[in-house]
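Re-run with default settings, no changes from the original entry. Doing this only to confirm the output is reproducible before filing.
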Amino acid sequence: MVRRRRGLRRGRLRALLMVVSGQGRLEGWLTALLALWSLTLSGCQLLPREPLPEPGVAGDAGRDQPGTLHFQISPGHTGSYYGWQVEVAAAEHNKGFISFTSRPMEAGERLDAQLWADRYQVRVLHLGRVRFQEWVPVSAGGDTLISVKLSFLRSTVTPHVGAEARGRLYGKPSRIRDLSSNYQPFTVHAGDGLRVIFDGPQYRGELAGPGRLEFIQNGATLATMEQARIAANEIIGELRFKDERKVDQALNGAFSFPDGTVSEWSDGRRFEGAYRGLQPDQGKLQLPDGDLWYGSVELLMPRGPGVLKRRDGSWLELPAGSDLLTLTGTVPCGRSSGGSRQCHYLDGQRLSSEADLKRRLASRQTSSSGPAAGCQLAQGHFSRGLGRSRLLLGPGGEGEFEQYSGSRRFRFYSAFEYQAQPERLDVKYGEGSYIHVESGQVLHRTGISEVALPCRFDGHTLWLEGKPYQRD
């Protein structure tokens, strides 16, 4: 095929020479111009060259330094000087890479893109036609140049690396793509309901230095760690929780805490035991009022099975899957001084006798068209957005809603009445107030119309209009 193309081109040149040596008639010159045009249209032929090297580390740079991919079009106004584009379609190993295609560029322009060391699939297009396609290396701290040299007969596209690339650069870039434009954070751990994403340097798919870790649990950011280093058995860095808790041990290589780690909160809560991800799972939890819980913990609250020991010397045993706010039924209870008995609860409220419990349950079932289901079972305190939005659904059809904004400087509050259906809450709001938190001044009052909110409840999470509220 190559020989055939060369033969065609030699034939065109012979025709051109014969025409030029002729009588100089207008037709001859037109034919000569057509011959030159056919040579221009014959495309871009890459000259034989040495294979491109593998990505490495340039000079005194470290693996955690980015390299630069330059795309440059030679100056001048001869040949095809407009309509050039570069497309970087994929990284061979690095994660989170965002492919991009440049806007149309013309003679004298240059684009510089910062990239972590790896090989990248690069295409050069002219007026939508592919003129170059190859995997090219970018080294840590190094330079790679994709150069377009314009010519009246034939424009060429050539890659250069290292010192040769730097020596062929001229002027300043007309456009720069930094690392934040070329990469997005990517997941380095997922399990136990926890997802950890990393934003930092890479070297051919390996983490190459300290970066930012974000810990996401139950759909919300639980903690962050700046300049984190991920070692085999330890995550090194300062872990900062959104709720400002303090933890006495470092994260292990499984992105969790060793058994026996102690966590403390400013409201008086303290936990010691085993963890699931970053959250307490099984152990001893001291509540803000001083009561002690021994057992399972969910969303920093007691969750059966376990035993609650109160400050007054009484104790209460919760069955599996139950919590204090919604506890309904008969459970063991007693005092530390000795002896045990049965205690009776309905929706977290203690009743005087088993007969009273049975009477209330029977009354509730009679007044209802059927057994409670879905959102009819959703009662208690709920929150989302690390407590910025809070919702209380009381057992008597009364509720409260509050939301903080402006770095918690402003608070919106409204009491409401509601009627629960399995998949809907019919809500009648009271007056809503916007309050300046620091001064307590009411900035604005507003009325809210009655609404029917689509609802879903799985026993732990309440979705209202598709937004998740976790039971506290």
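The mean pLDDT is 85. The two ends are 74 Å apart (CA to CA).
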